[in-house]
Amino acid sequence: MRPIIHPAITDVTVEGILYALSDPVRVEIFMSMAAADCAKPCSAYGEVKNRKLPKSSLSQHIKVLREAGLIRSQRQGVEIRNTTRCTELADKFGDLISGIVNAYQRQNSAKRKSKRA
Amino acid sequence: MRPIIHPAITDVTVEGILYALSDPVRVEIFMSMAAADCAKPCSAYGEVKNRKLPKSSLSQHIKVLREAGLIRSQRQGVEIRNTTRCTELADKFGDLISGIVNAYQRQNSAKRKSKRA
DNA sequence: TACAATAGTTCCAGAATATTGAACTATTGG
DNA sequence: CCAATAGTTCAATATTCTGGAACTATTGTA
């Protein structure tokens, strides 16, 4: 079987990151992964906004995140565990990622608030 | 003629911004606009990376930036002058935009450096 | 070794988006 | 009113995305 490929941090680009995070499903996955306390399998991210993703779509989305350099995936037995590359990314891109995540979080909490009202 | 439509700042979303800026041509346009000292017509952004954009494409890209809430366009005689909405955006999204722009700028200056070498 | 169960990936056809030349609209100067 | 300039819209083509079905990979069990 071929190994899972990750770009070197030097090959990670801003446009790649923005593209990957410009999809609402993918940011959700990424943010949820960033919030996780340990590496979780792909299937842990299979539900987004109360909608179950087809597994081929989930696989594609995770691949996009991986190839953009945002996450790292490694096989652990029958499943593939995923983590963000936030530390490396922060070294290279400063507060780009955290800025995006924070903006999303603020937006989401504002949305939840207005829904309750 | 119908007026040019801009979203209210309250309707501007993070995903919309990321989507708009995930295109290399559009970030170039946006960054160049942000760097401009005064409002310039669309045609001022018609050349990106030494390649002349077809004007229908330029028009589309500017429309995407406008509808994402990133820029403001207003007719001034025969041309349409464009400015960024950076101030409003910073109020709403903190350092999201500046983080993106800074990351891009660092990346571009690194690229230029390695080309020279 | 074989097979079943689980987790993901790949393939590919249909759906959705993006690109761009050509035709069109808007504004102004003469 | 006409010509020139600046952009927009239309529509055909091209590219990218989505997701079901078939496939591969790993492990546990017999």
Largest interface pair: A-B, 21 and 21 residues
**Alpha-carbon Rg of chain A, integer:** 15 Å
In helices, the fraction of residues of chain A equals: 40-55%
* Number of contiguous helices of chain A: 5
Mean pLDDT of chain A: 95
Strand order of the largest sheet of chain A: 1-5-4
In total, how many beta strands of chain A?
A: 5
Q: Can you say what the CATH homologous superfamily of chain A is?
A: Winged helix-like DNA-binding domain superfamily/Winged helix DNA-binding domain
* Shape assignment of chain A: globular
In terms of DSSP E residues, the strand content of chain A is 15-25%
Number of domains of chain A: 1
**SSE string of chain A, helices as H and strands as E:** HHEEEHEEHH
CATH architecture descriptor text of chain A: Orthogonal Bundle
Written overview of the protein:
Two copies of one chain form a homodimer. By secondary structure, chain A is an alpha+beta fold. The first copy, chain A, has one domain: Arc Repressor Mutant, subunit A (Orthogonal Bundle), CATH 1.10.10. Helices cover 53% and strands 15% of the residues of chain A. The first copy, chain A, contains five helices and five strands; from the N terminus they run H-H-E-E-E-H-E-E-H-H. Chain A has helices at residues 14-21, 24-35, 55-67, 86-93, 96-116; strands at residues 40-41, 47-48, 51-52, 71-76, 79-84. In chain A, the strands form two sheets. Chain A has a three-stranded antiparallel beta sheet with strand order 1-5-4. Chain A has a two-stranded antiparallel ribbon with strand order 2-3. In chain A, helix 1 (14-21) runs antiparallel to helix 3. The longest helix of chain A has 21 residues, at 96-116. The first copy, chain A, is globular. The first copy, chain A, starts with 13 loop residues before the first helix and ends with a helix. In chain A, 28% of the residues are buried. The A-B interface holds A 13-15, 18-19, 21-24, 27, 93-96, 99-100, 102-104, 106-107 and B 13-15, 18-19, 21-24, 27, 93-96, 99-100, 102-104, 106-107. The first copy, chain A, binds a DNA duplex (30 and 30 nucleotides) through residues 1, 41-43, 53-60, 62-63, 75, 77-80.
